[in-house]
Amino acid sequence: MSDLALFGGRSAFLHPVHVGCPSRVDRARLFDRLNWVLDNQWLTNGGPLALELEDRVAEIAGVRNCVATCNATTALQLLFQAAELTGEVIMPSLSFAATAHAARWIGLDPVFVDVDPLTGSMEPAAVAKAIGPRSAAILGVHLWGRPCQVDDLEKVAADHGLPLFFDAAHATGCTWRGRAVGGFGTAEVFSFHATKVVNAFEGGAVVTDDDELAQRVRALHNFGIGLSDSSPAGGTNGKMSEASAAMALTSLDAFEDTVRHNRANFHLYSEELADVPGLSVIPHDRDERHNYQYVIVAVEESATGIGRDLLIEVLRAENAMAKPYFSPPCHQLEPYRSRAPVELPHTERLAARVLALPTGTSVSREDIRRVCNVLRLAVSYGADVTTRWNRMKGGRE
Ligand code: T4K
């Protein structure tokens, strides 16, 4: 146990290994594109590379329209504004803060509903129950890239005449029942943040088959210029620059290699941790396409003797920078906690148990074995690690 860096042992990693380390790209190709942008002297405002990216993303999503944006948070806001939502948006709480904040920032009230206790996916029955007179839309989240129960959500939305949107920030390149994510509901939003499987430094996209909605998003992301009717929102600047588009295109070129690497990482983690009591890697449906961007482990403290938060401390002391994605869940964050307190037992339990492990193209098989060795060691002395840590924190050691 004393080998753990938490207790003074040498760290397993000299340098931090991260959850969201940017995927590898072909630098020569990226610099070629950037040089081309500089030569072309068109740096933003719907430049040729942003348009090329939109075509490629629309094709991946299997939809007619894609509007590239400066990030996914803005893309969600643009989508809500384009759909002229007012009132409440029903969504899961088990997500990154951006999902809720995007709505709140433009004056919409998130209404949080509970998730399936195993998959973390928003419960369609809970959504139906949450619908009220102020409901304006339903927003599903393809959490950790695992698609929602799309058909059930589509049915609830249709039964109540509400638009259904998806926050697909984690799910670029994934499928549900063989169909590409991006084509579900009225519209979906991808993130191309630095930490995502396709990265534009910062970037996002709205994808949809609704031509009119797409045209409104496009106008709104460019100050409302070209809007044929008057939008109460006016417009904003949500455009993607050519530098970001150059990065995103180069990252897309590497997409298959990135996913192959992530998939191998995921399977190695699953194998290595299979015999560690109380730790389970949340699986993916093998019949679907997945980007394997996140490796999520659920911690059952009654079996490990060590809780999720302390395991993260143990890993971080080793320079393995695990993250508690997503804890606290949105309903326990301000301003929601104070504005509209709610209890979501499945969400709370899952959020308190899960952690994301380092992965991505810069994380090697050797790195993964080291992370798993640390986890194995920490769990084999789980109760002792907990006792010793509590004593240290209490200043008694
Ligand atoms: N909806 C959902 C469900 C989302 O998860 C997100 C964002 C959004 C919407 C909104 O998308 P964007 O508006 O961002 O396009 C990170 C990302 O900033 C965020 O984009 C992402 N989700 C979220 C899940 O992760 P943090 O606060 O965890 O970031 P940070 O700085 O702690 O970085 C995460 C890890 O990545 C660290 O271990 C360090 C590593 N990293 C990070 C950056 C920026 C690198 O190795 N290199 C880097 O350049 O939010």
Describe the structure.
This protein is an alpha/beta fold and 397 residues long. The chain has 2 domains: 122 residues, Aspartate Aminotransferase, domain 1; 227 residues, Type I PLP-dependent aspartate aminotransferase-like (Major domain) (Aspartate Aminotransferase, domain 2, 3-Layer(aba) Sandwich). 40% of the residues lie in helices and 14% in strands. It has 15 helices and 14 strands. The chain has a 7-stranded mixed beta sheet, with helices on both faces. The chain has a 3-stranded antiparallel beta sheet with strand order 11-12-14. Helix 1 packs antiparallel against helix 8, helix 2 crosses helix 8 and helix 3 packs across helix 7. The radius of gyration is 22 Å and the shape is globular. Bound molecules: ligand T4K. Ligand T4K binds next to helix 3 and helix 4. Belongs to the DegT/DnrJ/EryC1 family.
- Assign the CATH topology of the largest domain: Aspartate Aminotransferase, domain 2
Number of strands: 14
Mean of the pLDDT scores? Answer: 96
Radius of gyration: 22 Å
GO molecular function: transaminase activity
Protein name: dTDP-4-dehydro-6-deoxyglucose aminotransferase
Keywords: Aminotransferase, Pyridoxal phosphate, Transferase
Organism: Streptomyces pimonensis
